Amino acid sequence: MSAESPGHKPGIRSFFSNALRTKKSRQTLRKNSLSRSMTDLRLAARSSADEPPPPMPDLAPLQAHRLKYTQTHAQLDSQLGERRDYTTMIHTLGLLEVDDGFEPAHKDNERREPGEGDIAKLSPGVWRYIANFLNPADAASLAFASITLYRRLGTRPFMELKRLENSDHRLNFLIGLDESLPHHLLCFPCARYHRRTQEGQERLKPSHVVNPLFNCPNAQNSLNPQPRSRITHARTIPFSFVQLTMRAFRFGPQYGIQPQDLGRRWQRDDWSFTSRFYIHEGRLLMRVISQTFAAPGLTPSAMRLLLYSREDYWPYFSACAHWRDGELMPACKCALEHIPKPRETGGLQGLEHKVKDRLHGQRFDPNALTSLCGFCRPMRRCPECPSEYLIEVKLAEDKSDPRGTVFKQAIVVTRWTDLGDGTTPAGLQWGAINGKRDDYDCFTHAHYAKRGIASVFEAAFTADTLPGQRVISMNPKKKKLGESGHGWY
């Protein structure tokens, strides 16, 4: 019964049933739209079979940038920035595998075939002809290589080394035997190896103490002395100690001593000294700190008595052979002038000082920190040798004062230097600091052109703490007057 029939009674149930009933017009519209969409899809499929597919849309700008960056930096290491070549890495891994074909020809290799037969195929005349193209040291090394070569060449290469004009070649040949003689030490005045008499117990001692490391017939020969370098007044370091330290570094502890065994603390002529050694890139570095108390207001003559030794007229502190040339000593005297002078407290002058201090809100302290000027503050580097100097004025405790704990102003001179690799006293660094070579330029040398000796040394013992001073030349005008000059004294 429909709602329009006369027998229908309206009610809530009939209202909801009529509201939720689906109308025929809506079903017809839905069927018509579905049939039309299916027809469109069939037509699109037929047309796509005949025509090529449309092009893909371009990437978004951000995605295109990421793709380009990935392709560009695919071979770069994100940490080091180095380009990685995987082909080279694979070949390297292949060579590192155990393979008899890549086994090195070393003397400890038992599988190596002996080459004595190939050497013996050549006549002695041919080997002597080959040795004529070599210098005496290389010819002796060739004859020393094997018993077969010695039989072919004979004793002639060794007899050439005994000649006086070939003394340098003889030393070069003997230096190459260092690794095979751990219990001996090369003596350069004698040009031969001596047995070590204090093996493993060698220690640095003052110059006036007899401290032989081996029995040498030229030990008392003043015309042919052992090579040594001056550390401070009455303290030197023989070249044999540099040899022992560097031999232990290269070959093992049984060949010498450690660098920390060379460090010392001592006092002499009211000066206190501290030395320390360190090995960097195959060279022995040395630092010497010299300190003494200085009174304020010293006269020029009093400054000379404080700085110079009366025995040899060298500075008490550590200095290279070029200390007379340049501004090292004038800088030390300038630093002494900055020590504050005590004021007179009596009379009108003392009252005037008190009034001025009160007006300026200051208080005079004779033990205040002393600031140096632009002339004496910078660190000095010797242009002729690997040596650097730092001059400071500090407060230090005078433990010898009978009044107890007393702090006084003290001048501190620190020197950093490079002693060389310890192979020969004719080396570049050792010869330069002793004034025997003039072909060294510390500002253009590869080791210290960009980084100073002090920075290298202090970085090895302190955590990121380096001398905070700029480095300037000790002799900016490059005048070599020596004792003829007037500024050094």
Descriptors:
single chain; 489 residues; alpha+beta; 7-stranded mixed sheet; 16 helices; 11 strands; 33% helix; disordered N terminus
Characterization of this structure:
- The chain has 489 residues and is α+β, with helices and mostly antiparallel strands.
- Among the domains are: 62 residues, no CATH class; 243 residues, no CATH class.
- It is built from 16 helices and eleven strands.
- It has a seven-stranded mixed beta sheet with strand order 5-6-7-10-9-8-11, with helices on both faces. A two-stranded antiparallel ribbon has the order 1-2. The chain has a two-stranded antiparallel ribbon with strand order 3-4.
- A hairpin with a 2-residue loop joins β3 and β4.
- α6 packs across α8 and α7 packs parallel to α10.
- The termini are far apart.
- The N terminus is likely disordered.
Layout of helices and strands:
Elements: H1 12-19, H2 24-50, H3 61-72, H4 86-96, H5 116-120, H6 124-131, H7 136-144, H8 147-153, H9 156-161, H10 167-175, E1 184-187, E2 192-195, E3 228-232, E4 235-238, H11 239-250, E5 264-268, E6 271-280, E7 283-293, H12 300-307, H13 328-337, H14 347-359, E8 379-381, E9 387-397, E10 407-418, H15 428-433, H16 453-461, E11 471-473
